[in-house]
Amino acid sequence: MILEEKINEYKRKLIDYAGLIENMMDKSIKGLISKEKTWLDDVIETDEPKANNFEIELERIGTILIAQYGPVAKDLRTILMVLRINNDLERIGDHIVNITESNRFLIGQPRVKPLVDIPKMADEVAKMLRDSVNAFIQEDAELAKKVCEHDSIIDELMKQIIRELIPLLSSSPRTIETSLHLIRVGHNLERIADLSTNISEDVVYMVEGRVIKHHKV
Hey, which of 15, 202, 205, 210 has its CA 20 to 30 A from 38? Predict the structure, then answer.
């Protein structure tokens, strides 16, 4: 069927978009760790425009598919789900830009604490994002549920970051500013985890017809 082929192509484009977003986050964190400004600049100057183009293109294709083919049942649910994930990926991209802007400041400052929790948090968040998109593509409700359960790990890492940085907020002005940027990085990673969880909750609903938001899975 022509529509089935179009939908499969649509899903592949979503995978490419998610891959770009994940790569942006990876480069931003690596740029922070290595103090490599060119990686951070690349995220803002090269990857962000590409991400914006993906978002616009996926929106356009989804609208055309609905208008031209009048999809129903599973086909319509799939297209609408791609549009929802597309919107979440656009928001995740914005959070990565926020992270990168803070990292541009941080690489020019002395370390106020060893970079342990933020890279670990970023790795966990990247896995959540990757698994949430894979859960949709594979229609795997169990994988989606695991993503939702993983969100508590991110919350604990964020609490740990704040606990370690609070004492530094009463130090020198420079230490305060650095600490606030680190908290900003952590907060934006936390929001990416929340959006990945949202995607996974939608996958469970799509596959099982069950609402798990605000409930234990």
Answer: 15
Question: At residue 164, what is the residue type?
Answer: E
Residue 215 within a domain? no
- Residue 71 and residue 41: Cα distance in Å, rounded? 42
Look at residue 171 in the predicted model and tell me its pLDDT: 73
Q: 103: domain CATH number?
A: 1.20.58.220
Residue-wise pLDDT for 167-196, tens only, equals: 888 777 778 999 999 999 999 999 999 999
DSSP secondary structure letters along the chain: -HHHHHHHHHHHHHHHHHHHHHHHHHHHHHHHHHT-HHHHHHIIIIIHHHHHHHHHHHHHHHHHHHHHH---HHHHHHHHHHHHHHHHHHHHHHHHHHHHHHHHHHTTS--SS-S-HHHHHHHHHHHHHHHHHHHHHHT-HHHHHHHHHHHHHHHHHHHHHHHHHGGGGGS-HHHHHHHHHHHHHHHHHHHHHHHHHHHHHHHHHHHH----TTS--
Q: Residue 200 and residue 145: Cα distance in Å, rounded?
A: 7
Question: What is the extent of the structural domain holding 118?
Answer: 2-208
| Per-residue pLDDT reduced to its tens digit, 42-65 | 999 999 999 999 999 999 999 999
Domain count, the chain: 1
